[in-house]
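Thread: Newbie trying to understand structure tokens

Hi all, I'm a second-year student working on a class project, and my supervisor (Dr. K.) asked me to get a predicted structure for one chain before our next meeting. I've only ever worked with sequences, so writing a 3D structure as a token string is new to me. If someone could post the tokens and maybe explain what I'm looking at, I'd be very grateful. Here's the chain:
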Amino acid sequence: MVFKRRTTVFAVVFFAAFFDLCESAETQQTRRFPRIGILVGIAEPNNPSITVFRQAMQDLGYLEGRNIRFQYRYTEGDRQRIPEIVSELVNLKVDLLFSTQGIVIRVAKEATKSIPIVMAITADPVTMGLVDSLARPGGNVTGITSLARQLTGKRLELLSEIIPKLSRVAILSAVGFSAVKDYQDAARNLNVALQILELQSPTGDLRNAFQAALRDRVGAMIVVSVPGLSGYRKRIVDLAVQNRLPLMSESVAAVEVGGLVSYHADNDEVLRRAAIYIDKILKGAKPADLPVEQASKFELVINLKTAKQIGVTIPPNVLARADRVIR
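---
Reply by user tm_fold:
Sure, no problem. This is what the structure looks like when written as tokens:
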């Protein structure tokens, strides 16, 4: 009887432990980490923004593969594929969508009304129709805007200070973006003539665009940060240097590979703020209740090595205002 009693007790303990283990395994299998759909222009290592964003999320306690999963997708400059990629992420039922491209946010907003969308874009989201207002975004979209278009006048002013008697500037963009109009409005106030170069396909049009700019005797060029051009950044910079054409960029990345100057919002700070928005939403906040934040920190970056190479002297008063100088 003693033997039977011990056997019974052992069996009870064994099966209890067995079912606990099964329940634990099942819990681990069914536990679902938040999944963030990330759609940006180009993949690492050519896109340092991904590294900054991932670190910002890690600083908030999100460790990829441990308590969060990122679903990365890239447009690679092909605007035609954006609806397809967005649809793919929506069908995966990600918990949140994040992008640094206004066109992606627009497509995502049309594709889903339920999945929260966080943006870190350069354009004005109100003008683009992405939110009702900055203070009360409404709907499922919120995030950060660096308001790059509002800096168009400042970029033209800086070029006028750097290039004596500057009278004509080429604007290099892709077809179908509002940036061109913003520069036209700013140029009228500064009495600067613009040559608009909108590319259908950077692959074959870049060299022709530069030839047109030189033929019209432009004194400088501004390259707009839009999908389709970012993947050709180095080629654009090389053509500018070869033709001794001062190049102003809307992002620091072009200056880091040889462009002359850039004036832009601090991109790293914008991405860190976007990560905070994602954290709030994952913890229960609704996008409609989170006001869209505007970038408040801007950077002037000058490449002195390029200036010497193309024969441009940066005035001391402009150099003194630079946040960063590449020598």
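A couple of things are worth pointing out once you decode it. The first strand starts at residue 35 and ends at 40. Confidence is low (pLDDT under 50) at residues 8-30. Feel free to ask follow-ups in this thread.
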